[in-house]
Amino acid sequence: MSTAFYWSIAGTAAGLVLVGLWGILTRKHILRIALAFTLADTGVNLLLVWSGYLPGRTAPIVDGTISASGITSAVVDPLPQAMVLTSIVIGVAVAALFVVVGVLASRRTGSADVRRMKELRW
Amino acid sequence: MIRTLTGLIIVLVLGAVAAAVIPEMQMREELQGVGYSYVSRGMDDTGSSNLVTAVIVAYRGLDTLGEVVVLFCASTAVVLILTLYPIGIKASEPSRVVAFTAKVLPAPILLFGVYFIAHSHISPGGGFPGGTVIASVFLLVMLGSSSVPDGRGRLPAIESLAGLSFGLLGFWGIMTVGQFLNNAFLGTGTPGTIVSGGLIPLISIAIGAKVASEFSGVFKAFRNTGGTV
Amino acid sequence: MVVALAVFLPLLGAFISVWLSRRKPRLSVIVSRLFLAGGLHSTIVLSIKLNAWSFSDLGNSIILRTGVGAPPLSINLEATGGAVIAAIVVYVAAILGISRLTSRNVKTLPLLLSLVTASLGLLFATDLFNSFVFLEIGSIITIGLTAACRCRRRWEVAVKVALVSGLVTILYLLAIVVIYKTTGELRFEALGMLHGFPALLVSGLMLTVIMTEIKAFPLSGWGLDFYEGASPGFAGVYSATWSLAVLMWSAGILPRLPIPNLQILAWIGAGGLVLGQFAGFRATSPGRMMGYSSAAYASILLILAGTTTGHDYLQLTLVLMIFAAIAKFTVFMLADPENENPLKSAAGNLLLLPILVIAGIPPLPVFWAKFKLLSILAGVSPLMLAAVVLGLFLEAVYLLRLWSKRPVRFLKNGRLVPAVTSLLMAAGAIWLTAGFWRSLSFSGSLLSSSTLRILFMTVFGAGTLLTLPGAWNRIKGERSYWFWMLLSGISLTFLPMAGNGITFYILWEVSAFAAVIAVSRGSRAAAGTFWFAVFAAASGFLLLASIVLSRSMFIAPGIPLILVAIAALFKLGQMGAHLWSVRAYSAAPATMSAFMAGTSSKAAVFLLVVAALGTGAVAMPAGSVLAWAGVLTALSMAVMAALSSDYKKVLAYASVSQMGYILIGLGLASVMGWTAAIYHTFHHFLFKMILFLGAAGVIFRTGTSDYNRLGGLIRRMPLTFTFTLISVIAFAGVPPLAGFGGKWFLYNGLIETGWLPIALIAMFASVVAFLYAFRLLHAVFLGQLSTVNARVKEAPLALLVPQGILTAALMLFSFRPTLFLEHIVPAIESLPGLKGVAPVINGTIVTTPLGNWNAWAVGMMVMGLFGFAFVFYWLSGKRPKHVGQLDIGFAGELPPSAEEVHYAGNFFKPYRRALAFLPRIHAGKVFSGITEVFKIAGDSVRAIFTGDARTYLAHSLIFLVIVLIYLRGGI
User: Which candidate in C66, C68, C116, C122 is best for mutational testing of the B interface (most B CBs within 10 A)?
Assistant: First the structure.
């Protein structure tokens, strides 16, 4: 059961990343691209959590249910969880900025189509 | 057409790479590498019974400082851009439901946020989620009234203070034990109690205040621009 | 503690300024400056502690521990010597750039200060996830500050930067997942613990991330758009802070990548350098040129990572990256922010130094690193060396275009910043030159014959001294150039003392580029300077390539010798390269033209002599090619001179033509030929200097060099006329004056070797030389005095005295050539490997297989005949009648303007008709053809940068796919 869960999470995460990349490469609307990025970001975050997964264990917080002595066989890896927190916050920050810039860019160029934003080239 | 095809090929190849590399990452049964050390030593080193918080605030506090800076820069940039180039979201008169909710809910949500922050070292929670919860109060109050809260602009002052205290807490560690952002030099207390984890609660409060004021500032920037366009 | 202060003081300042900038904007700028100054102070303390300024122990470090415990649990910041020096640059750029960035909006302060912390964090990072956090801070600030500027295309740029950094985030996090999952930790060292498929995947991901971040070709599209579209103020600060930090960070990661053969990085870099610079060659916007140049430096970083290790690697990356960053910062700071297209108005005077720094001209700091890099590459692969040299040359071309096409003016405000950075670059040049001083040699051992060495030094030194006084007589529109002429002359004078390749190269380049600058200060220099600079760069790079290829020798036989021969031909203006020389000679300030045509062109002769001797024995495998090149140039340029009607252009064509004779002589590789070449070198120096100085006097007094507006000046400027007359007779090659000797030895040598066709063409070319010499005298000095010139005075003494000295020398050596030959001939005879017989000198008689030449006797006879004729004329009592220029009638009509009846107007109409086919086939077409090919190549390369942000993302992903396939060894 846990093995199947493990692989299915990996598969879902990889799928999310790939769908996100596909969206980034093929969508034209700037907010859809932002959405595709968020998708891919979610996939990556899922992968991060996945990388710390251990079967049958609980969150790395010492409370009544876990004894301090047996803790190393009771909880999952805390580092990926810490990293995913950082990554989520960063994702939010970048997404907020990107949306603001994107909205303003589409207002100024009169279109949300990224193909219109290529005055700078060559 | 070409673009779709290129995208498809790229995604297919990368999918093949993923299909090849993921099976190499077999599921482990035991903690490995630094993860094992964090779990086995974490409580003794930091005094925090929430090991994720121990990693975030204590072991890898530098990452978290960076994370704070990321949010700080993003919110500063958003506020800056929106001040320079207003986006023009129209502020409408709040409906009665919203107005009522905005009167009733802030206190319990605020309490929840504060709890989140204050107990980050002993239970799930932390400065980031707590700060976000508090900022949601600001959003709620803002939506519930036609005026903008924080008319006198105290948010940046809070932001400054919170950021400064985070930084100075870091320097405190250097001056005592020569290690930036060290939390343990004052003693770590009894894990599981509210006064434990060394500086972790203080740092969490700083983070919480900073995150809350930053998000509030972003919300305010969106609203501020409402009337001008 | 010091490390923490260095990294985090700006952050504290940022936290304060976010509040203060709203309350007290001015105070917040001051406070921010204080925080930056504090941080700078800490970094300087660090650099002293680490002894980083010696540039030798760059690996030393001071570690700041953070958090709880020790790595791998916690994170260290490691301040290595190299990173600390880069950090100082970051600080300096931030402090200098702060007023530019905050002049519009002081609320950008927190972002600028945070950018400094992020840059230092990245420079000192030791942990992969930690680096990721810093990278994100940098990207966010870049997006924010780009969008906050007032330039028109800010949104487009911000969107592109945001999209690209979003993709980088995803790829980097994927790499981190694989690394952590496989190794269980996140320090840089974890990269080395990877094996098998994960190693491959991580390498591909990290390489894509790094190449996108450092904007290496072909992943540079977004960077090009950024540099073109962002405000120059921010682009400048960005390039010297964030961009520098990312480059140095990448320099730390690249060698750790788990790739079995790191040399592939060098090939990616070399390929990217050539292709990217072909594209850059076509760039028209200055910002974009800077973008292409930064892509070049990114490619160089890859090359370094693939070919060097250890101390060399640290030192080279540091020197290249920091000085390029300072230079680019300076260029952007010179841009006028009020202008619609700001960089187009960049101040010309201060722009040159950063451009030369980026292009790597000695002895500027980047040169030392580039030289070392090329020496290393010569041992790795000649093909890679060729690619890199070509890439660097293309970069130099568009950088020089950026400089030469700018209107030359100073900024009104903000001159302080470029002045400070220029001082930094100069200090770097001095510091590094001092460091490399021991590798230089002034033993003069490149040329074994001390007689010839002294001869060349005399030519260079005397040429410099004699032209220098004239440099103070400037006509309207010329700016002071004496310093650059003097610098050029001094380096030339020391050229014969060079004892090894690098010394020779440095003197050569300093002389060439000082001359470029001097020419650029002429009144109509714009046209001439660019091509001069391009050919100077081309011959410089050819020389450099052959020096590094020859290793211990100066110039090795084979390919290096051929490259040097091409370099010398370029310098001499032969075979179509007159493209630059004629334009430059006629565009330069008049005295500078004299210096260049008379003196510095002899440097190429010296180079050919030394290179031929340096191979052990005089070896001229392609001597006949040289000779043919020389004779064809001599003829075609003589024709061009005859058809031209501009005083300086005629002289310019004439000098190129005369250089052809020297080339024939050298190509003969016989004692007779070399005697001819050396003899002609010296005498050409004498009479060409006289002619150009005379021209300088005429132009200084009349303000024009157009034949149609001159004429009759013999009465106003008799001394100048006399000197010019004597040297015209000399170079026409008729006895009794000196030009005859050179031709005599040359024909002797040609007949001895049996190259009769060349001899015939050379003779025909001398006939054409009569035409232009004759016309020159008439058009300028004889005929009727134009009314506008009726009151001109004789040339100033500063020009006349040098002409007098030179004429005296010319007369002396004309009548007593043996005074010269009795030293030169034995010296040439003693050179190894020259074939054929030497002329025999006996008193005043020089004997060759074809006969005797007694210049003294001939001279006396001719003088006697002249004296007789003059006395006869004097006694005859007939005097010419002076008439005004318009004192004639054309069938009762009065001629409307003086030009139409000018004696020299359309002088050679019949010849022009008869010879019209010759100019059409001249070799200048070859170079426009080459330029055309380069343009097409550049256009096809840069077509990949479509401007669509998603294309740039696709580039990165396609690159990733290709790298993965390559690393796996196939599909």
Answer: C68
- Picking from C92, C105, C146, C108, the residue whose alpha carbon sits closest to that of residue C417 is C92
* Domain of residue B220, residue span: 2-228
Claim to verify: residue C337 and residue C404 sit in the same structural domain: yes
Residue A78 placed within a domain? yes
Q: Which of C181, C134, C3 is nearest to C77 (CA)?
A: C3
C224 interaction partners in chain A (CB closer than 8 Å): 120
For residue B157, give both structure tokens: 């002052």
User: In this structure, are C468 and C548 located in the same domain?
Assistant: yes
Q: Is residue B194 within 8 angstroms of chain A, CB to CB?
A: no
Of C1, C183, C196, the CB nearest to B33: C183
Q: Are residues C700 and C813 in the same domain?
A: yes
Domain's final residue, options C611, C637, C671: C611
Cα–Cα distance, C245 to C240 (Å, whole number): 8
Determine the average pLDDT of the residues in C201-216. Answer: 96
Q: Which two tokens stand for residue C395?
A: 């970069």
Q: Which residues of A touch C177 (CB under 8 A)?
A: 44, 47-48, 50-51
CATH number (domain holding residue A76): 1.10.287.3510
Which residues of C are less than 8 Å from B61 in CB distance?
66-68
Residue A118 has pLDDT above 60, yes or no: yes
Identify the domain containing residue C489 by its residue range: 448-611
- Report the chain A residue with the minimal C-alpha distance to residue C218: A122
| Model confidence at C407: pLDDT above 60 | no
Chains contacting B (3+ CB pairs below 8 angstroms): A, C
* Residue position matching structure tokens 């030393």: C60
Quick check: ipTM above 0.90?
A: yes
Label residue B229 by pLDDT band (50, 70, 90).
very low
The count of domains in chain C is 3
Q: Specify if C5 maps to a domain.
A: no
Report the range of poorest mean pLDDT among C429-433, C572-576, C901-905.
C901-905
What is the pTM (predicted TM-score) of this model? 0.92
Residue of chain C whose Cα is closest to the Cα of B11:
C957
- Whether residue A91 lies inside any domain: the answer is yes
CA separation for the pair A3, A56 (Å, rounded): 11
pLDDT at residue C694 in the model: 92
Whether the upstream peptide bond of residue C407 has omega within 30° of 0, thus cis, is: no
The continuous run of DSSP H or E covering C64 comes out as: strand C61-66
- Closest Cβ opposite residue A75 in set B39, B81, B126: B39
